[in-house]
Write a structure and sequence with these properties.
Elements: E1 2-3, E2 13-17, E3 20-24, E4 27-33, H1 40-44, E5 45-51, E6 54-57, E7 67-70, E8 75-81, E9 84-85, E10 93-114, E11 123-124, E12 129-130, E13 134-138, E14 142-147, E15 151-155, E16 166-170, E17 189-200, E18 203-213, E19 226-233, H2 236-239, E20 245-266, E21 271-272, E22 278-287, E23 290-299, E24 307-313, E25 323-328, E26 332-338, E27 345-355, E28 358-361, E29 365-369, E30 384-386, E31 414-416, E32 420-421
Parallel strand pairs: 4-31
Antiparallel strand pairs: 1-32, 2-3, 4-20, 5-8, 6-7, 7-20, 8-20, 9-21, 10-13, 10-17, 10-20, 11-12, 13-14, 14-15, 16-19, 17-18, 18-19, 22-23, 23-26, 24-25, 24-27, 26-30, 27-28, 27-29
């Protein structure tokens, strides 16, 4: 298995926040699961299945290099990532991608977000999926959008009609069964893309795109054969969760291979290793030559948080080996800290939190200091930290209104991608 994270770009946005000028470079992370090794599923997912044969094979799949393999016949399974994610602010985007080989007569496969690991109590329904799913399930003739409380049906062919709230961008009017044998892709392979955009503090916009693919993973056409939207979804369970997981689901007898599952998280979302605390970098900006920082620890990961605070450096992705502002311990959804006066220049800031399992970091925020000193020691003496209010305003931090604090916030991201082979 390879988990990928790759770096793109740097600062592309600026904002005015409570009267202070700040520049941001927020991290975007892509996790990729190629299922090329038979141990990939067990190492990276918690699963729950009620029937059928679902296995991680080292052959078959895209490029014949391995995939999730589903034996013909009804199979029902949900698999959630062991790693978790912190919900990002308004403007965050989440893109799920997978390749499916559709050869059976009926059934579904899909993906999305859930707030709970897979278990008997957290999965069910038709299609078989997390009960609180914010996701998509696709089948031969159409799809089902899920928002935790509502499931709405749609169809690839426009003449068959759409459920309430579904918008049509591109329909597939060649046959009733787009993902059917002999009626869609010649190879029976499809690329499905499910996108979630947090458009307000209390709602999400979602969309699904389907492409015809070849057996090597290349696309037959660069344009989707079908595209639909399902917007302004409340997704209360997901938006209110302290941490969330990505999932994929298999239901019935449709998909015989599921491969190259990826999740791209853009706009300040953190990826948290299993057992580590959940932490967010809420904001960082210059104030009188120093950097004022805001963070949030929302979940302890199952072990007490022994320390949280901020790290900063002149290079990207600082760690606790760099300059540190230690603030406190335990869970704290709203904490702040300030560095000493720094040399003029560009700095990278991240929130951090540590428990017995390890240290987690929030997104990398880039701040340019222009009112600091022209040279000398900027190693972090006389730093301060506080956990209760936003230092710049004294107002309580509200996780549902991160962007409302800074009207005009534009935070387009530098992207980080790491590769870990197991």
């Amino acid at each position: 298995m390879q988990i990928g994270m790759k770096k793109f770009g740097a600062l592309v946005g600026a904002a005015m926040l409570v009267g202070l000028s700040a520049s941001f470079a927020s991290a975007s992370t892509e996790l990729t699961f190629d299922f090329d090794s038979t141990g990939d599923l067990a190492a990276n997912f918690d699963g729950y299945s009620t029937g059928g044969t679902i296995s991680n094979s080292s052959s078959g799949g895209i490029g014949n290099t391995g995939s999730m393999e589903i034996a013909p016949g009804d199979a029902f399974g949900v698999y959630t990532t062991k790693s978790s994610y912190a919900m990002g602010p308004v403007g965050s985007t989440y893109v799920f991608t997978a390749f499916l080989k559709s050869q059976g007569p009926n059934g579904y496969s899909g993906m999305g977000f859930t707030a709970e690991p897979s278990s008997a109590g957290s999965t069910g329904g038709t299609p078989f999926r997390p009960n609180d799913a914010l996701g998509i399930s696709v089948h031969g003739g159409g799809f089902k959008f899920h928002d935790g409380t509502t499931t709405v049906d749609g169809f690839w062919r426009s003449a068959l009609g759409e459920g309430s709230g579904i918008g049509t961008v591109t329909s597939y009017d060649v046959a009733d069964q787009m993902l059917g044998v002999g009626t869609g892709s010649d190879s029976d392979w499809y690329k499905v893309v499910f996108t979630v955009y947090r458009d307000t503090a209390t709602s999400m916009d979602t969309s699904v795109k389907v492409y015809f693919a070849n057996a090597d993973g290349t696309l037959v056409d660069s344009s989707p054969k079908a595209e639909y939207t399902f917007n302004d979804r409340p997704a209360t369970d997901i938006l209110g969760a302290t941490k969330i997981h990505a999932y994929f689901n298999l239901s019935g007898n449709r998909v015989y291979n599921f491969d190259n599952f990826s999740v791209n998280l853009d706009g300040g979302i953190s990826v948290i290793d299993e057992g580590n605390p959940v932490v967010l970098t809420v904001d960082a900006s210059e104030t009188s030559g120093a950097i004022a920082m805001d963070g949030s620890v929302t979940d302890d990961g199952g072990a007490s948080v022994t320390e949280y605070g901020f790290v900063y450096s002149t290079t990207p992705d600082p760690t606790t080996s760099d300059a540190t502002v230690s603030v406190g311990s335990g869970i704290d959804p709203d904490y702040s800290g300030t560095t000493a006066v720094l040399d003029n220049g560009t700095y990278h800031v991240r929130a951090y939190a540590t428990n017995a399992g390890g240290t987690s970091y929030g997104a990398d925020v880039e701040v340019t200091v222009t009112a600091g000193s022209s040279g000398g020691d900027s190693g972090g003496a006389n730093q301060s930290g506080s956990g209760s209010t936003l230092a710049a305003t004294g107002a309580p931090y509200d996780a549902s209104g991160l962007v409302a604090l800074g009207a005009g916030l534009i935070a387009l991201g530098a992207v980080v991608r790491r590769r870990v082979r197991r």
